[in-house]
Write a structure and sequence with these properties.
Pfam families: HK. The chain is an alpha/beta fold. It contains 12 helices and 11 strands. The two termini are about 15 Å apart.
Length: about 270
């Protein structure tokens, strides 16, 4: 039943054109907006502390990325979490750099005091840091090999009562009970800045179209990114990061439910 729902998520998204409020880092804000447009969502980057509360109430989903956190963004994110919680709007948190900068853990705790977080999407180093498990990172990049990744993700999902989605060579998506491993993807995704941020934005887009089944939405978003990455690398012959980035957005636009079903490499554990 879940697999059938996963493969209908994309057409569902495109029929609804969900509005995504994204407060994200300055390095990748343009890529996040463009990949949301390519998948069929409507991006809005409203990060004014005076406007975030009211604007979030208009959105179908929220994406918060703390990669280049400023004081203005902090205030806006707190307001966005509050509004999303009040109206039960799906909220995706991307805890960029929390494994390297301890202060960010404190900010995430503060965010959670303002309202619920529905999905934590990060690399395994970030997920382990939130779970209080020792990990290895280099800046915002995870060096963790992920031997205990499934167990850590499952436990954090249970503790926080949310979905945990960890990107990596094998992606892990779990609600604590049902766990999917997505084996799609290509190494070229690690050669362009912001692939993880784009994935987080995609996750919010999918969740905004179907808040009744956030697990299926999250899996579909990771599957979309992985398959698009594979196709972009084939066009690009796996050599050039600049053109790969362009092909990636094109391939997101070209996806459909049939491609997701036929190309998927999903394992449930």
């Amino acid at each position: 039943m879940l697999e059938k729902q996963i493969y209908s998520q994309l057409s569902n998204l495109r029929s609804k054109t969900p509005l995504v409020e994204a407060i994200t880092n300055y390095v990748t804000i343009n890529d996040c907006a463009n990949i949301l447009l390519s998948i069929g969502a409507s991006p809005a980057m409203c990060e004014s502390a005076d406007e975030a509360y009211d604007f979030t109430k208009l959105a179908n989903a929220v994406y918060l990325n703390i990669g280049t956190l400023t004081k203005e963004q902090e205030l806006a994110m707190l307001q966005a979490v509050k509004a999303a919680d009040e109206l039960n709007i799906p909220l995706v948190l991307d805890p960029v750099g929390c494994a390297a900068i301890p202060r960010r853990i404190g900010f995430i705790d503060k965010l959670r005091s303002f309202g619920k977080v529905d999905i934590i999407k990060g690399n395994l180093g970030e997920i382990k840091s939130l779970a209080g498990v020792e990990t290895k990172v280099r800046g915002v990049d995870s060096l963790d090999k992920g031997e205990d990744g499934v167990e850590v993700c499952q436990q954090l999902a249970k503790d926080w009562k949310c979905i945990v989605a960890a990107s990596g060579k094998i992606d892990i998506i779990t609600d604590g009970e049902t766990t999917a491993l997505v084996h799609n993807g290509d190494d070229m995704l690690t050669k362009v800045t912001g692939a993880g941020c784009m994935l987080g934005a995609l996750t919010a887009g999918f969740c905004g179209a179907n808040k009744e089944n956030l697990l299926a939405s999250c899996i579909a978003s990771f599957l979309s990114m992985g398959i698009a990455g594979e196709h972009a690398a084939q066009h690009n012959r796996g050599c050039y990061p600049g053109s790969f980035r362009v092909f990636l957005i094109d391939e997101i636009y070209k996806l459909n439910d049939t491609i997701l079903r036929d190309k998927s490499k999903i394992e449930f554990v």
